[in-house]
Structures are given as C-alpha cells and as structure tokens.
Amino acid sequence: MPPTVRALQYIFTTPELNEKVFTLLESKICAGKKKTGRKGMDLWHILVLSVVRHATCANWDRLHLMANYDMLVRSIMGVSKTRFTEEEFEFEYQNILDNVTLIDEDLLYAVNAIVVEAGKQLLKKKKRNP
Predict the structure, then answer these.
(1) Which residues of 48-64 are buried (b: 16+ CB within 10 A; e: fewer)?
(2) Is the pLDDT of residue 38 over 60?
(3) pTM for this prediction
C-alpha cells in the first residue's frame, strides 16, 4: 500500500501530471453529464478508491471499510478528520460502488501510461543531474 499511496501523492502534487490525469478523468467520467447538485464524490476520491481497490484486490465491502476507517486512505483522499475540521466525512456503500465503477480497466491503463511516462521523465532528469 505505501508505494501506491506514494504514487497517488506524486500525481496530486505534480502540476503537469495532475493536469493530464484529471483532464483524462474528466473527459471519460464527466462527459455528457449534467451537474445535478447531488452529493457524490469528486474525481480525486474516485481515482484513489479505484487505485486502492485494484492494488489491494479489495471487494466492495472492504473498499467501503477502507474509505471510511483506514487513515492512510482517508489522508490521501483529503477527508481525514483533523483538529481543524469538525465534521466526519463518510462514504456510502452505494456511492462508492456507483462512482468507482466509472473507472474501468481501460481508463486505469490510460492513467497508468501517463504516470509511467512521468516516471521515465523523472529518471531521465536524475541521470542528467547526479
């Protein structure tokens, strides 16, 4: 799990990579959908839970548990309770199921390709600057 979380952190904190990944997610997930104002999940939550599910081979019950009680997963999603926040954010089982299934295997492969390319560029930079 730590390498998975580190990769997600790198996606979130690297502006160029973040933009590419979120552009891809928006084009595949949000295309043709109206903003209804219903409570849901943002793209980051969906991506994190999808990646965690695949990395841990979690079933839906385990993913629901992790989304609501695993502090590492909640921290990377940005919903962990801190001394500065009063409300506890919980994900409903059906909400997780409905949203995480929007990221299919092809979309995960596309995100993976973007991340792998960013990793290659990072290695090239390190080789040039020892």
Answers:
(1) bbbbbbeeeebeeeebb
(2) no
(3) 0.83
